[in-house]
Queue: 2 jobs
Job 1
Amino acid sequence: MDKQSLFVQVANLEERIGELYVELGALKQKIVELLEENQRLLRENEFLSESLKAGGNPDIGVGMGNLKRIYDEGFHICSMRYGSLRTEGECLFCLSFINR
Amino acid sequence: MRFQIRQPAIADVVQTVSKAVAVRTTKPVLTGILLELTPQSLTATAYDLELGIQHVLNADDENGLEILEVGSIVLPARYFTDVIRKLPGDTVSVDIQNNYMATIRSGSAEFHLHGIDAAEFPQLPVFRQAHSVQLPSRLLGELIRSTAFAASNLPVRPVLTGILFEFEAAAVRLTATDGLRLATRVASAEDASETPEWTSRSAILPGKSVLELLKILPDGEQLVTLQFTDTHSLFQVGDTSFYTRLIDGVYPDTKRLIPPSYRTEVRVQRELLHDAIDRAALIARDRENHMVRLEVRAEDLVVSSSSPEVGNVSEQVGVEHKSGDDLLIAFNARYVLEALRALPAGVVAVRLNGPNQPFVLTSAETDDNLQLISPVLIR
Ligand SMILES: [Zn+2]
């Protein structure tokens, strides 16, 4: 058996696996982004239909309560990271928004 | 191009600029160091298009620079740096032939390195009539050390990976935050502009670049001149010029993050608080968020931490002064330790607004240096 060509084949395979790994990582990131966006849209929809039921314009009080709930469920409500998952702890920007 | 120089002098120059050499790039010229020889001086430049460092060496007795023929060349930084460092003799001679081949001789060693035409090296940003201020080097270093650690490492929000430089009347303020903690420090500066238009100008500098700048700042009262355009900044100290690109974008308004008042204040020796939290973190270190608790009870301050698998620790810390309500708050020990190290030694003031609100650490004397930390909620 040609050892040289076997080696080349394995090296090629290694390279392809490496590429697949990178691709997998990118897909995983995409899933996180889609989950975040989905969550954001769900919340937004919920908020809008609730304020529609309440009649008239979205009320600031109701809106704030909703935002607080979204924050407590683990999502940013600040303009810096709106709608993205809070993974590291309490956010100074979100807290200042809630406290206002 | 031909010159002679003492080995430690060129090793030093190459070392200084090498931090701006591009590591990953498709343009080979960016992985090189540009050497330019005029009748009086040798200039070395590295520029990865984000960060640029230039050092000018004027001939004197100490560096033994002898200019034999002016000219310029780009030499591959990786090889040139190592070659220079390991040369056997005290004197080095560099000779460039027409085909961009460098001959480097020292003692009885002779290297030949392939160079690149200097004309291919990118131009550094131009700072014509830019705004400028001056700060003592040591003070600028302190400003950076008090703030840079709080900048974000995550590229999600690029502006948060930067450090905000704000210029107020005769003062410079640096601010950094990753959204979980914030560090800000102000110091007086001299306006060196010909047109004093400093008021309310600001710039966001990449945190990584600022940390590189810190490495080349001398620890003395030597003045550093800061210059800014809309896209770049330049720091000049002695014969070294440090260029960095600015981060494009709007820095969030961080002034509204800082609580205007507080319900509880505890004053305590920085070292005592730091060491107690450092010890409590031993138990918390493997746990999520490195959570340590701080309890203010009557005139006492108790630092504690517990972990179901490891055990627990509790320690009373003597306070200088306490005012306001009692409370129990939890936080990420790492953030508080870094903030305490950024404050000057002596008595620090811890200002709190209840267990769910961000709290401030600052010097008891002045709030020039302010550290804001978000709590870990105790559920
Ligand atoms: Zn947030």
Note: The mean pLDDT of chain B is 92.
Job 2
Amino acid sequence: MTEENIINVEQVDAGYGAFPILENVSFTVQRSEVFAILGGSGCGKSTLLKHMIGLNPPLGGQILIMGDRIFGGTAEERERAMRHFGVTYQSGALFGSMTLLENVCLPLEVFTDLPRDARLLVASMKLDLVGLKNFASYFPADISGGMKKRAAIARALALDPKILFLDEPSAGLDPITAAELDRLILRLRDTQGITFVVVTHELASLFAIADRCIMLDKPTRGILVEGRPADLRDHPPCAAVRAFFNRELPHE
Amino acid sequence: MTLHLPEVCSSESVTLLWRDVLPDVARLGAGDTLVLDANGVKTCDGVGEALIVEIFRRSAQQGFAISRQDENRIIAETLALFDIASFAEDPASTNPKRNTHTNEQMGEAAVRIYDDLCEQMSFLGEVACFAFSLLIRPGRLRLRDTMLHFERAGIDALPITLLIGFLMGLILAFLSAASLKQFGVEVYVADLIAIGLFRELGPLITAIILAGRTGSAFAAELGTMKVNEEIDALTTFDLPPVFFLALPRIIASTLVMPLLSIFAVIAGLLGGLVVLSGMDIPAVTYWQHVIQSSTLNNILLGLIKSLIFGLLVGLVGCSHGLQTARTADGVGRAATAAVVGSLILITIFDGIFAVLFYLLGI
């Protein structure tokens, strides 16, 4: 794994309106690593993710995706930054009126001039990558939750992004399906060289896939700790980290 | 034949190759050899991989040989990642064919209409049962919910009802005045407006507003609750959704309709007054004619119609809301169906009333 920074989050104040949920947050994500953002409910994980994927501007600071500013730069710079990544949402967010193949084809139709047979082949290959090639003609309503998440990953991969943002990928999945999804993430990282940024609080998935993580903290409105998940679990630097990784209740 | 893959196999470069070179590849057959040169390739994304897969797929189908030049192992890695044999079938064939057979479509539509009718009748029966139980024990009515829906369907709809009612009176006055002026009896425009608004246009316009505004809102609210499994939660608590959610809405829409209708009529009469004042007819004369024409019969017939229309809007809106499909477009379809269904029923019942009143001579 090279040590090249692919995402730079620099002194970002995250939040909505006038009140930041997180202040002065800085970290980097390196190429071809699985990077996890952790924290308890309401600590600002999803808010930070929304800033990183360009949905909401941060209250301060800047976010660089492969050197391009997602906010605060030119429209061309933002467009370039947006083309570097794909996103999958908690529910999969597939379009219910389209088959899986049509769902994956959609970004290719909009952003490329490929002929129809080429688009269909590319989409079919993306579905093959996530193990859903034989379900290409199914509608999202006809497949399970785990399959929906895999199909959403296939759709996010359609334009060959360098980075994939995953919001709670294992949430609501049984342990076997979650493990399959973890394996898929690692396989895509190894075969396609994709960088993953995963927002999660599923500890089993975290230890299985994440190379590095940051843990956000609600009381201090910042990053409590940064490092390898196993190291943080085995040598927690503070009580809050130990409590999180060992699922301990706070002392009365 | 030699095919040189570009240095950067991206969607732009591969699109050109796909369009210009693949037709030539299609002419190759058994005994031919295609030299696939990937030595110059530095980066290859998914589209480039698709081109490689497509060439190998065609080789398997057409029988031509492929000679690889693959210093950077681009082709080898692609073949390791994708099983060419599994792509033998055309991906387009996996896309389901939408049913375009007219007979089948008509049959499906007939079954759907029949199922819809059965569900509506079952819903109507359920509402009737709960309404009867309310008559016995009125205290069971969720008064706070009913008042909330009354406010949303009634008070919140007042501005648009007044505006449309006023404009309707204005338009009616202009249209009828133009004809009656030829005979010098434009003063009778007041009678026409009063009878027209009380008996027909007041209830009808208000019902259309209620269907578009409140009926669709009922369907969307209940549909969203169904998608969010809130309806399931009520059922498992043994709280019948029809009683708990639909009945307060239906009662509110039924009771609010006559009131809105009265406001629409008053606004319409004021609209007529504005037009006739411009034609030098004194306001006193106008009001005298309006009062003469506003018989108890006309007012009561309008109010009865309003009650029935309000009931129809509430019933159709709630029924479609509770039958919403749990899909992304389910709520939208329910709201649309609620409005369309309400409008059709309102028109049908209006026709029935017209025939009935004519036969009864009222």
Note: The first strand of chain B starts at residue 2 and ends at 4.
